Predict the structure.
Amino acid sequence: MRFQVLTLFPEALRALAGYSIIGRAIQNGLLSITATDIRRFTTDRHGTADDYQFGGGPGMVLKPEPVFAAVDDALAAVPDAERGATPVVLTSPQGRLLDQSIVDEFAAAPGLIIICGHYAGVDERIRAGLVTHEVSIGDYVLTGGELAALVIIDAVSRFVPGVVGSAENVQEDSITSGLLQHPLYTRPAEFRGMAAPEILRSGNHAEIERWRRRQSLERTRRQRPDLLDAARLTNADRAYLAGLGGNDDDDAA
Ligand code: 6GU
């Protein structure tokens, strides 16, 4: 999977490349992350990538010419057969909220071109003429799109075969499966008066699975009840949730 990031701050993209799971995947040739400075594609001697907005107002707007040139350059590096399937993503607070379904869609692509939005925003012709997907990572404003690009890259990379230990692993992860993760414990069995649940040390795998499932259901109900609507629930899950009482809204079969 090839990630090409177009940004005014290419150094910011190095954050993921050097360590841990993503760093190892790059070393193993499963991923590549290139960060290209949009300023390279400016044509005036000052390297002007942004300008005042027509109509007046605060903040500088990313100019169209260098961004179009940078995307053309990035697309030229994509094999012909893959070009049409390569999303051109703009990071911006106006975008669709990143979620697992967008991550899945991106993970199925041969690569991504990510334009990091910056300053007050980008010239609208960048959206109209280049961008296939506009993505936000949450309802808050960042100073730039670089962290959002890193979030997208990290989340998508986990689904590239070989990046995470086993494919099964990522599919069963919290959120991917539609529920929050159950509590985890490791040694020591007792710490500062807090004991790991006896059941987890019982060796009874059926009982352990049942406990974990119920903990996931309870935690999801408590922390993210909105997720329950879309979660794949069994009849046993629904019965368990109904038995918890509380907010009936989530118990509709
Ligand atoms: Cl993608 N960009 C910026 N600047 N702020 C954000 C964002 C993106 N997502 C949430 N806030």
About this structure: The longest strand covers residues 88-97. The first helix runs from residue 20 to 27. The pocket of 6-chloroguanine is lined by residues 91-93, 95, 117, 136-138, 140-142, 144-145, 148 (CB under 6 Å).
